Amino acid sequence: MTGLDETSAAMPLDCLVIGGGPAGLMAAIYLARFRRRVCVVDAGASRAGLIPRSHNVPGFAHGLSGSELLARMSAQLAELGVARVSSEVSDLAPGPDGFRAAWAGGEADTRAIVLACGIVDNHPPFEQWRTAVADGLLRYCPVCDAYEAIDRRIGVVGPPAHAASKALFLRGYSRDVTLLATERADADARARLAAAGVEIVEAADMQLKRRGRRLEACFNGGDSAEFDVVYPAMGAEVRSALAVSLGAEHTSDGYLRIDDHQRTSVAGLYGIGDVVTDLHQISVAFGHAAVAACAINNSLPRRLV
Fold it and tell me: Which residues form the FAD/NAD(P)-binding domain (predicted)?
């Protein structure tokens, strides 16, 4: 990855993209092809990098891993000569040209900002969660991969407020779905789950263990159950703090409020991908990126050759 040299850093960017997941990289690709001066600042912790294989990316009938997708997009950016900075933006403030962003060892002025920081999932108690994700035993997105869980024994972990809807969705793929409720479900949730044939187990102290190609849920001081795949539904941290610090409007969960051009309530600040929606899909991120990049290009002074 390349950063901004001293000469170029003294010139304002047309756009700074914060976050190097599918949304941020797609926005940077579009902006570079618009011949805009763009830089990506990324800490290298994209949630997409954990995907063992996605089958929802068009054109890849047999799927591809998240790391391969990011590598392909990064190579495309390199060919376009887009500057990359391996760091985390620590401060975002109004600047002489729009905004001033700062990170360890550097800063830049920019006319526009694309915030593509995404989310960080809350994980169940499980030391081996990374390897379980890599092996397809622990999964976070049934919209993405429930098709691969057809007829398997499925566990869903979390408070019913988050987990009930996910369990009901997965019931369309398997007859064997269990909700491991970390909080007591109310009567309405219990009725809906029971009507769909989803088993409910109260498991406030639940922990996961690896058992070969399965996961074991241990709870209630000695009870346990094994599953082919487990879906946590425990919420997430929305990484919108930089935008919120500028006064951007947001939901109670921290998702940024945006208009149909991906513009936040702060002029020049755009939000895309998981930081604006709980529909955490690569295709959604791509769409957001294209819309935001086109809006940014149209908002800037026309480039003439």
Answer: 14-289
